[in-house]
Amino acid sequence: MEIELKLALHPRHTARIRRHPLLRVITPQIRLLLSTYFDTPKFDLMRRGIALRVRRVDDQWIQTLKAEAQSVGALSSRPEWEMAITDGSHPDFSVLPPAAVELLTGIKLKRIAPVFTTEFERTTWQIGNSVAQAEVAFDIGKIYAGEMCRDICEVEIELKSGAPEFLFDSATQLLEQVLLHIEPRSKAERGYILSGAVIPAPLKATHAAIHKHQTAGEAWNATMQAALVQLVGNVPGFLENTHDTEYLHQLRIALRRLRTGVLLAKSLDQKSPDWDQPLRESLHTLNPARDWDVFLQETLSQILGILGKSPENAPIHDTTLALMRDVASHARQRAQTLLLKPAFTQLVLDIGRSLLVTPSGLEMQDAKAWAEVILEKRWQKLRKRCHGFATLASSERHLARIAAKKMRYTAEAFVPLYGKRANHFITALAALQDELGRENDMRTGVQLLHTFPKKSVTQSFELGRLSGALELETAQQAHLSNSVWRRLARSKLFWQ
Predict the structure, then answer these.
(1) Is 406 in contact with 260 (CB distance < 8 Å)?
(2) Which of 413, 438, 426, 439 is nearest to 382 (CA)?
(3) How confident is the model over 110-147, as pLDDT tens digits?
(4) How many other CB atoms are there within 10 angstroms of residue 435's CB atom?
(5) Which of 174, 231, 203 has its CA nearest to residue 355?
(6) Closest CA relative to residue 356, chosen from 108, 72, 18, 16
(7) d(C-alpha 44, C-alpha 27), whole Å
(8) How far apart are CA 465 and CA 445, in angstroms?
(9) Are 347 and 275 in contact (CB under 8 A)?
(10) What would the DSSP string read from start to end of 24-82?
(11) Which of 108, 280, 340, 409 is the most buried (most CB within 10 A)?
(12) Angle formed by the axes of helices 423-451 and 457-476, to 10°?
């Protein structure tokens, strides 16, 4: 079983890793590694989560088969089989152990052929203490797929013996002097992307692996792991495809799911983790970019449509619209910068390390009993906030929206405990959140326009028109439909 932490860095910082105090007193080993990855024309191995490579190490050919990885943040673990073979042009399946051969059942082995290659220099250091040992590997080189190539510049810390906490502690030491950032994808994953076998897409929330026979601590841990996987899974996509706004949206959802987890633990008298404040700060930093995305993609088109219906209204100049897009672009760049900062990397490491231990006091509590208590508390808070729903004032609607959001994240976290019983309630809850969210998006749009830098009289006038139309539309839609709340209030409470 391979257990490792993997982080990336910019090529201009390679000297820092070599000079780091943790490593510079250790004599490194340096090798040039050339690897070929194999698969069928339909990428059957990849679809099963299998990576098969043949690597040249000095004068030897080493064949490696890795099964699907289980990842929590930057930490990954996967079954791995490695053996020497005599010919590097093609895998030798006869040397595989039965467990590995079983993974290949049904795959036509004769159709397996080279798909992409990696070529990089690997510098390794052996680090450790009396209770744990690990290998730090610094890889710099390229991935090749046909005429396409992509850089490799990353650090892997592989556990050789001892507890996984040692990996996180070692990474934290490296991070003190090296600007490492999150890169959860293996070389194989990036190679498949480069070869066109995989089209990257934002990673949406998935249900945590929880069940009714778990303790509350195990269920809590599983929900946090699922949220952390979603968080780090969207980091590379947002850094590489900044104009695909869904990556940022899913990043914020993952951060909110983690915040929900913190609140769930606090509700059972658990102390807030040290990383709670950095978590909230990260979410706060990402908010402006998401606010501008929503404004440009949804709110602005609605307001431009309203203005276009009045003959006396001239169209908004392209210059003003271009300036808005420019401000939004800068907000996304600031969000990208956050993900590359050591503080964000440390946040992910701290969360991952904390999930190696179940919170004290939650070990023996029943997961379903715990869920029922939490869900009922959230429900009663939402009912209180939605009392007199149709006549709620603006500030009251804001509080109701927050309560609905917390209720939804909590309900979705516990869906695996209840199955389809929860679907009707969550659908009605989502409709309520959407109803409250539409007005909030418009009010946020007004705030963005008020803070927009005004550089000319013409621009100020146009921003005023947009702001005025948006405020009027917000006021006209302030009367909430009581039916959306009634539908939720009549829904069967799936946890009772």
Answers:
(1) yes
(2) 426
(3) 999 999 999 999 999 999 999 999 999 999 999 999 99
(4) 20
(5) 231
(6) 72
(7) 41
(8) 13
(9) yes
(10) TTS--EEEEEEEEEEE-TT-HHHHTT-EEEEEEETTEEEEEEE---EEETTEEEE-EEE
(11) 409
(12) 150
Classified as helix, coil or strand, 120 is: strand
Query: For residue 391, how many other CB atoms are within 10 A of its CB?
Result: 10
Rounded to the nearest angstrom, the gap between the alpha carbon of residue 18 and the centroid of all alpha carbons in its chain is: 29
Closest CA to 406 of 222, 210, 264: 264
Other C-beta atoms within 10 Å of 158: how many?
A: 16
Q: Which 8-state DSSP code applies to residue 490?
A: H
Please check whether residue 365 is in contact with residue 215, taking contact to mean a CB–CB distance below 8 angstroms: yes
Cα(23)–Cα(186) distance, integer angstroms: 23
Distance CA 281, CA 258 (A): 13
| pLDDT, tens only, 397-430 | 899 999 999 999 999 999 999 989 999 999 999 9
8 A C-beta contact, residue 65 and residue 80:
yes
Pairing of β 148-161 and β 181-182: unpaired
- Tokens at residue 278, please? 């950095």
Phi-psi region of 263 (alpha: psi -120 to 50; beta: other; left: phi over 0): alpha
pTM: 0.90
- Distance between CA 15 and CA 440 in Å, rounded? 48
